[in-house]
UniProtKB/TrEMBL annotation:
UniProt xrefs under CDD domains: APP_MetAP
Designated name of the protein: M24 family metallopeptidase
Organism: Amycolatopsis pigmentata
Record-annotated Peptidase M24 domain positions: 155-344
Domain Creatinase N-terminal, chain residue ranges per copy: 13-147
Segments crossing the lipid bilayer: none
Length: 379
């Protein structure tokens, strides 16, 4: 039985999506979820799915329906109470999906993640509605998910607490001779103990030769290493990330100078956050710090990918990069992280996730932004 709180959230989402559908002239929206991009299916069904392909079909009015290539997903989706008309479907056994589409009489269909739709599914949809126009609704769903409700923010705050606990577990195990994979195993144990569904993590250890982060390996930590991570647990479907670096032992002067540079860049990025700011402007504010200090070349794609990114049901949403003029409205959630290589002390990782508030921002993690050191007498 769906709770009153969940029902209110479901109705809020469907009103938002249907208003966008009406504006775009869509009769039906098909939220497609391939195995690695299931956020739109979860947004509309509030259920985790494990299928290689799943759809939630939303008509302009009336009840939605869901279709999945994994039989085990059917009771999971139906059990959430958000979408109760749920069917098993594959390209070779899609009678109910075809029947639903034909029954809709749709003339214009928006497909979220149409760009990822396999040819076999695209052909099936066209045969089901041969006279219909199919268009991408990816940006429609991106926009719908951008502004977080109080219901969503409550879940993301739970993720924030797990971020803090995971980072503390990270720091607690650091010592010379420890292999990288043991660090990640300690973090995984802690975040899973706290209820995380998943955790995305990259890591790097070493000194100024480190140029990026990778999955953990068997490299052994040494005294004076800086150990960097992006730690991103998923709770109730929602991802949140913390970026920090720690020193095995005591930090060198170069590592401290590197931290000061990156912290100044984070502060610069945060200083411009307000409703209506663009991803471009947040990136420029961070990059300008590096440019003023003579490190502008390390803001390029040769050394770094983004200066942050959105958070939500997908772990890497709207990119915070120069040239992306996506507007960040109140209650958007994203991380500000100027992670990149510089010759000062190698690749450095630092960043905080924030919520855009009416007059600025709210940092969602409680972990202090500092250069952590494991030496007992370190400051």
């Amino acid at each position: 039985m769906i709770s009153a709180e969940d029902e209110a959230e479901r109705e809020l989402r469907y009103r938002k999506v249907r208003a966008a559908m009406a504006e775009a002239g869509l009769d039906v929206l098909l939220a497609f979820g391939p195995g690695w991009r299931r956020e739109n299916v979860r947004y509309l069904a509030d259920a985790p799915v494990g299928a290689s392909a799943a759809f939630v079909a939303v008509p302009g009015s009336g009840a939605p329906a869901a279709f999945t290539t994994r039989r085990q997903d059917v009771p999971v989706i139906a059990g959430s109470g958000w979408v109760t008309d749920v069917h098993f479907a594959t390209p070779g056994r899609a009678e109910q999906l075809v029947e639903w589409l034909r029954g809709s009489g749709a003339k214009r269909v928006g497909v979220a993640h149409q760009e990822l739709l396999p040819v076999v599914w695209a052909e099936l949809l066209r045969k089901a509605l041969p006279g219909a126009e199919f268009v991408s609704a990816t940006s429609l769903m991106d926009d719908a998910r951008m502004v977080k409700s109080d219901w969503e923010l409550a879940r993301m705050r739970r993720s924030a607490k797990v971020c803090a606990a995971g980072w503390q577990a990270f720091v607690n195990v650091l010592e010379p001779g420890l292999p990288e994979y043991r660090i990640v195993s300690a973090v995984e144990a802690e975040v899973k103990r706290l209820g995380a569904e998943d955790n995305f993590m990259l890591i790097a250890s070493g000194k100024d030769e480190v140029r990026g982060m990778v999955p953990p390996g068997d490299r052994l930590l040494a005294d004076g290493d800086m150990v960097r991570t992006e730690l991103t647990p998923q709770m109730d479907g929602y991802w949140l990330q913390i970026c920090r670096s720690a020193i095995v032992g005591r930090a060198s002067d170069a590592q401290r100078r590197s931290f000061d540079l990156f912290n100044e860049a984070v502060e610069a990025g945060l200083s411009v956050v307000r409703p209506g700011i663009t991803a471009h402007e947040v990136a420029v504010a961070q990059n300008d710090v590096f440019r003023r200090k003579g490190y502008g070349e390390y803001c390029t794609s040769q050394y770094t990918r983004v200066r942050g990114h959105g958070h939500g049901l997908h772990l890497d949403e709207a990119p915070i990069i120069e040239g992306n003029h996506t507007v960040l409205p109140e209650n958007a959630v994203f991380i500000v992280h100027p992670n990149t290589f510089t010759p000062i002390a190698g690749y450095h990782v630092l960043g905080d996730p924030v919520r855009v508030t009416a007059d600025g921002y709210e940092i969602l993690v409680e972990t202090e932004r500092k250069l952590f050191e494991t030496a007992k007498d370190a400051a």
